[in-house]
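Figure S4 source data
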Amino acid sequence: MFDLDGVLVDSERMWDEVRQAFAARHGGTWPAAATRAMQGMSTPEWATYLVTEVGVRLTPAETASGVIGEMAERYAEGPPVLPGAVDVVREVASRYPVAIASSSPPVLIKSFLAATDLTDVVPVAISSEQAGAGKPAPDVYLLAASKLGVDPSRSAAVEDSTNGLRAALAAGMTVYAVPNPHFPPDPVVLAHVTVLRDLSDLPAALASAPPGE
C-alpha cells in the first residue's frame, strides 16, 4: 500500500503553497500548526479546517473546489514524481498486489497513474474521500486492503508523514517510513516502524521480511 504525497510524488510542499496562497486570497490567517494538522486529512476535512480554523471566507465545498482546481492545474504540467518511484512500484507489483491509499482527491490520483503509465499496474487506488475519514484514521488503508482482497495484517504500507504512519499502524499493517525531509515525522511514531533511507530500499526490505511473517 503506497501513500502518494511525499512517497511517490514530491507534492507536500505544493499542497502547502497552494493552500496558503488560496487562504490568503480569501481572508484566512495561517496558524503555525496548520500545515502539519492537514497532512493526511481527507478533502472534506481539510476544506472544513481551512474555513473554521484558518478563516477562509468561503464554504468548505467552494474551498475544496478552488484548491483542488489549482492543484490539478499544476499536475497538468506533469506530476512531481519522485526519482525512482515508478520503478519501485513496478518492482513491488511484480511480486505483490499493490494499491495506492492516499489523502489526495481521486482526480489527482488518476492524473498520477495516467502520467506514469501505472494505471494497469496499480489495480486499486483509494482516496480517503472514498473511505469516510482521513489519516490518522485507518479507514483508507482498510478499504484498500478490502478492495485488494488481502488481510491488513499481511500487508505493508509506505508512508512519509506522522498522520500517515499512524493510520497504517492503526490498520495493523507492517509499516515502512520514508521520512519527508521538509516535514519530518514524529520520532515517537518512527520508533514503531521500519525507517528506510530511501524508497529504493523498499523491495529489498520486503524480500527480507515479507509482511505478516
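Figure S5 source data
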Amino acid sequence: MMKNKKILFLILIQIALLIVVISCEKKDKNSINSDSIIEGKTSILVDETLMPIVEDQVTIFETEYKAKLTLLPKSEKESMNDFLTKKSGIIVLSRDLSKEEFTFFKNNRIVPRSTPFAIDAITFIKNKKSNDTLIDLKEVIDYLKGTKNSIKGLVFDNPNSSTVSYLCRLAKIESLPSEGVFSFKTNDEVIKHVSENDGMIGVVGINWLTQPKAAMQKYVNSVKILSVKTADNKYVYPSQENIGSRTYPLARVLYIINCQGYNGLGMGFASFIAGEIGQRIISQSGLAPIREPSRNIRIRNQIENKK
C-alpha cells in the first residue's frame, strides 16, 4: 500500500514538472514571436528611397488590423547590414536578395520569402528654369565613368543608397567619382537643392515627386522630370504606363522580403501589399502595381434620362 502511494506521488510530480515545462516553452515562444500574421508589433527595415509608398501601405494596414509596424528607414547598404545581423526579419528593397544573401539565410535554416509588389523608377530632375527636358542615359553613364560632357553635376541622396548602387551597376563602376558628383542624406534634400540651383541634375525615386510631403510641395513644383534616351534612340518619360511596361529604362521592381522564420506580420504585410487593397494604393501613388487591381463595373438595365 505504501509502495503504491509512493509511485502515485512520483507520477504526480512528473506530471507537475511536465506542465511547468510546457507552460515555460509557450511563454518563451510568445516572448520571441510577439506577433501573428495580422496582430502584434514588429519592425521593418526600409530602403529610405522607398519610404513614401511603404508609409502609405502601413497606415492602411494598421487601420485594418491590430498591428503596429515600426519603420526603420536607412540606406540600402545599411538596411542590408541590419537585415543580415537580424535586427529585423523583414525588409523592403528595390531588388531581390543576391545569391550570396539567400544562401546566408538558408544556412541559418531560414528560407527567405520575396514578394514583388510594385514597380518604381529612378528619375532625373532639373530646375524648371532649365530649357532641358531630355537626358541621354549614355551620357550619364559616361559621366559616372569620368568622361566630361554636357552634364554639369549629378546630385544623389546618399552614397550608400539603392539609387547610387543601381547606377554604379549600370556604369560598371565600384563607386561614384570624386568630382562632379554630390550627395546628401535624403531624396528631399536632393529635390530642394536642385530647385534652388540651376544646372544641377538630381537623381531621385519617382515616389518622392508624385507624393511629396506638404512642406516639400513648393520645391517639387520648382523642378521638372526629364525624359530619358534609351538604347534604341527613343526618349521615354517615366509615366505610370511606361514604368509598368518597363519601357522606361530605369524602372525597378520593389520587394518585401520576409526572413522572420515563422508566420508573423512579415507574411501578413506582404500578403496585404501584394493583394487587392495594397495594389490599389500603389496605383494611386504614381508607381506601377505588379498586377492590375480589379475593377467593379455596375451594369444598369435602363439608362436614366437626366433632365
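The two ends are 100 Å apart (CA to CA). The mean pLDDT is 87.
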